[in-house]
Design goal:
Chain lengths: ~110, ~120
């Protein structure tokens, strides 16, 4: 019951910014956008989340459109270690579960 | 590192057996969620425990059960194992109470193989 649409895969060059899109056209006013990534065979790693304002932390930036129907995760300087599956998740603040879709497989190439 | 630990890392069981997986949550966290991730798929929510009680459940049969202890660690028990139960089992801890800020932090997982 994932509420997001992401591209299946994308490549990016090492050292360049990686821009990962996510569509969540049915998002409600109290639903947050969360991003996780999963490096092969490891547990998912929390990256960032936001409600309506753009957010930035040491890992990435999250840009949410004004209508909140889509967002972009930006990895400013991709490295080979950023190769992973990236999941965009829409979640009600007090909801107890994360609903993972298929995610985007990001491959960073040297 | 998230501070969430899981044991064992790998496990092999045969069909019909029972298994117990363990999770220690991050210091200060009071909520534990369990997920099942089959090969090539995203994690699927099993259930969540808060204050030692089940706080929500996904679409999993009753043979999947859990416990949370006073120190907030948790166990996932699966009875009558089936071949399809082969998966990576993930535990995530969070701090309930801050609406919208209940970020879940995952452990490394336990890989279960049912033969």
């Amino acid at each position: 019951d994932a509420k997001t649409t992401q591209p299946t895969s994308m490549d990016c060059a090492e050292g360049r910014a990686a821009n990962l899109p996510c569509n969540h056209s049915t998002i409600s006013g109290n639903e947050y956008v969360y991003w996780y990534r999963q490096i092969h065979s490891q547990g998912p790693q929390y990256i960032i989340h936001g409600l309506k304002n753009n957010e930035t932390n040491e890992m990435a930036s999250l840009i949410i459109t004004e209508d909140r129907k889509s967002s972009t995760l930006i990895l400013p300087h991709a490295t080979l270690r950023d190769t992973a599956v990236y999941y965009c998740i829409v979640r009600v603040g007090v909801d107890y579960k994360l609903s993972f879709g298929a995610g985007t497989t990001v491959t960073v190439r040297a | 590192e998230t501070g969430v630990t899981q044991s064992p890392t790998h496990l092999i069981k045969t069909r019909g057996q029972q298994v117990t997986l363990r999770c220690s949550s991050q210091s200060g966290h009071n909520t534990v969620s369990w997920y099942q991730q089959a090969l090539g798929q995203g994690p699927q929510f099993i259930f969540q425990y808060y204050r030692e009680e089940e706080n929500g459940r996904g679409n999993f049969p009753p043979r999947f059960s859990g416990l949370q202890f006073p120190n907030y660690s948790s166990e996932l028990n699966v009875n009558a194992l089936e071949l399809d139960d082969s998966a990576l089992y993930l535990c995530a801890s969070s701090l309930a109470g801050l609406a919208g800020q209940e970020t879940q932090y995952f452990g490394p997982g336990t890989r279960l193989l049912v033969l």
